[in-house]
Amino acid sequence: MAVRLFESKKHAAAYLQYRVSPTELISTIMNYMEKKTLKHFNLAVDVGCGSGQGTVLLAPYFTKVVGTDISPAQLEMALANSNPPNVSYRQSPAEELPFASGEVDLVAAMTAAHWFDHQRFLQEADRVLRPGGCLALISYTTDMELEYGDVSNRLNDICKEFYAALLPFRDPYLGSGSVRIYLDMFDSCSYPDKEWNECMLIKRTLPLNGYIGMVETFSSYQKLQKKDPDEAERLSNDIRNK
């Protein structure tokens, strides 16, 4: 069954503030779609949209974009954000999308599909997609690198300490890594023209608190924080000070 997380208002607000918007990945998706069809794109659905960072990036390419999420708190953050006029949001589970069969041009899930009931979601995506439509699942790993002058190596050693401390709190649902989950979903899709992109490096300039804040939105940190708030705060401060 699907996993429900990221549903507190405080977590949703942090998600909106600190998660990185996947601009380059949206361009990759649209380049793929434009190669396959010359038709005008009417409807895109961003499933598990969270606070809408990725949803709004789809707006220039479609007549209408709808973000769906199971979490009222995440949708509240999305609605409070500045949204283009063709973007709206609806509450629904990923496995029961509120769209007619063959109605959707693009079903996207950004850093979300690993939490869904995979087979039910894939069947539902296939139902709502028009013939020739596109299903795009994107995510990231913790294989992140920090760069700052001649201390880059030391910074990355500190990052690895952070991730190692959080590893025991990683949700067992994810197993050793979410890449395996996405590979399994990719393999189970019977679409003849599917494409797997192993890795795309994206570079962002962040203040230190931006990086710490992003890691604090991870489900593993949230689990530690729920279990032992003082230890979670101590860990964050220790990493920040280092």
TrEMBL record:
SUPFAM superfamilies: S-adenosyl-L-methionine-dependent methyltransferases. Residues 45-136 form the Methyltransferase type domain. Keywords: Methyltransferase, Transferase. One of its GO terms (molecular function) is S-adenosylmethionine-dependent methyltransferase activity. GO terms for biological process: methylation. This is Methyltransferase. It comes from Lates japonicus (Japanese lates).
